[in-house]
Amino acid sequence: MNARKVLILNQTFEPLQVCTARRAVLLLFNGKAERIEDSGQIIRSPSTIFALPSVIRLHHYVRIPVTPTISFNKKNILKRDSYTCQYCGRNGGERMTIDHIIPKSLGGRTIWENVVSACRPCNLKKGNKSLRETGMRLLHKPFRPRSASVLGILAHASLQHERWRKYLPPDGEDRALLGP
Ligand SMILES: [Zn+2]
């Protein structure tokens, strides 16, 4: 049950952190949190049947510390994209490559909004071409992550992506903060 990850939301519905299913079940049993989304998985014991949550929300408010700017590097880009190829949706773990959406040869910059995780076949297919030339589409618009807690959640999000996505920052958030 510990392999399963559960997203914890703050009282305000802000994403807070990822925990093990065991901890989430304890929080529910102890009345510290409420169930927001189910995982579709069920635990059976001789006496009970329990639906495992995918998202829970705390009844009390936890203050989120202000984090310094997130380092812009390959590791964090992969975390932001949940180690998932942003063209085909394949999950490739640490073996994923980084692709420039607008290639450097066409003036594309190396910034959060212009780089995405891509599997090798997609990266090769795209090469030094623009999206329009290849006809490829992005699954999500890349954005600059605001906080370490959100980045940590996104890193675990690949398996639960669709259930968690609506509680995570919208695509393109913080674009305005980046400037020209
Ligand atoms: Zn791919």
Question: What does this protein structure show overall?
Answer:
The strands form 2 sheets. Strands 2-1-4-3 form a 4-stranded mixed sheet. It is α+β, with helices and mostly antiparallel strands and 180 residues long. It has helices at 21-29, 74-80, 120-126, 131-134, 148-155, 161-165, and strands spanning 5-9, 15-20, 33-44, 49-58, 97-100, 115-118. It has 2 domains: 5-58, no CATH class; 69-180, DNA Binding (I), subunit A (Orthogonal Bundle). Helix content is 22%, strand content 23%. The termini are far apart. It has 6 helices and 6 strands. β1 (5-9) and β2 form a beta hairpin. α2 (74-80) crosses α5 (148-155). The relative contact order is 0.17. It binds zinc ion. Zinc ion binds next to α3.
Q: Could you give the topology of this structure?
A:
Elements: E1 5-9, E2 15-20, H1 21-29, E3 33-44, E4 49-58, H2 74-80, E5 97-100, E6 115-118, H3 120-126, H4 131-134, H5 148-155, H6 161-165
Parallel strand pairs: 1-4
Antiparallel strand pairs: 1-2, 3-4, 5-6
Helix pairs in contact: 2-5
The protein binds zinc ion.
Supply the CATH architecture of the largest domain: Orthogonal Bundle
Percentage of residues in DSSP E strands? 15-25%
- The chain-level mean pLDDT equals 87
- Count of alpha/pi helices: 6
Number of domains: 2
**Tell me about the biggest sheet?**
4 strands, mixed
What strand line-up does the widest sheet have?
A: 2-1-4-3
The first-level CATH class name of the largest domain: Mainly Alpha
CATH topology call of the largest domain: DNA Binding (I), subunit A
Which stretches of 5+ consecutive residues score pLDDT under 50?
Answer: 174-180
Distance between the termini: 46 Å
**What class would the helix/strand composition place it in?**
alpha+beta
Order of helices and strands: EEHEEHEEHHHH
Bound molecules: zinc ion
What shape does the CA trace take?
Answer: elongated
Fraction of residues in helix: 10-25%
